[in-house]
Task: structure prediction
Amino acid sequence: MEKIGFIGLGNMGAPMARNLLRAGHALQVHDLSEPAMRALAEDGAQPCASAAQAVAGVQCVITMLPASRHVEQLYLADGLLAQIPADALVLDCSTIAPQSARRVAQAAQERGLTLLDAPVSGGTAGAAAGTLTFIVGGSEQGLARARPILEKMGKNIFHAGGSGAGQVAKICNNMLLGILMAGTSEALALGVANGLDPKVLSDIIAKSSGRNWATEVYNPWPGVMENVPAAKGYAGGFGVDLMLKDLGLAAEAALATGATTPLGELARNLYSLHSAAGHGQEDFSGIVQMLQRRR
Ligand code: NAD
Result:
């Protein structure tokens, strides 16, 4: 079974890496955070002081980093591509700009490496349960090699197209998610302000035409569901600033092609105000707090 170098052990990377360990892969892990590495070491991974050490002698490299600049810095500016063994497969699961994904894939190809963009959907619960959706951009042959590894972390694997296509699809999905979470929050706040129980309203929406993932799986209203960020003061989960990054990527993609995304832009502005009010590190479902009636 492949030895894997895993870099980026945050809210998503750590549970994904744990599933690979459980499946029997040897893992060399690296993160800028010592505690993040220690936690994985307790589960049997080999902690590495540098990214270069983490990729030494591996057959596959996986990165799960916050944004484009981290991915470009690591692979290109810091020269990690030059340290990766020649026959290794490289999977970047971070959500980044499609043009960044294409740049690193091109640089990898020039070194004879196959690099796929493989961003994920399904949140931290999906990462822990091994039920993520992988949205892959790159060659068919690369995906065929990646599939057995991705299947240990996810349930659905889609081939969106060539390099960067996985990121385009992911950005479209997350723009819609941002809009749906804000809209769901607005509907629940309206119902509660008019005397409804948020749980009863959520149950009604879940069986009516307004149904969506934000209401049914990741409800933003505290007390409606257990084991969601709303039940934990919006700790963990998918940070407001990460959602803001994705809505910014959607805006850039729209500008680049002349597409119109008025609701995406409105959602971006809402999350931007929420972040500016000090909630950037909290889960994005906390946007409901902006809409709750204060009096
Ligand atoms: P996170 O901020 O929790 O984790 C990122 C980790 O990367 C941190 O531990 C950080 O220390 C580490 N890191 C940053 N630069 C590094 C470097 N140069 N070398 C080594 N480690 C480095 O973020 P997350 O929530 O795990 O998200 C990761 C990616 O997945 C993002 O692109 C995000 O948009 C995407 N994503 C997140 C979710 C979610 O629900 N959290 C869902 C789908 C996709």
Q: What stands out?
A: Residues 7 and 30 are 5 Å apart (CA to CA).
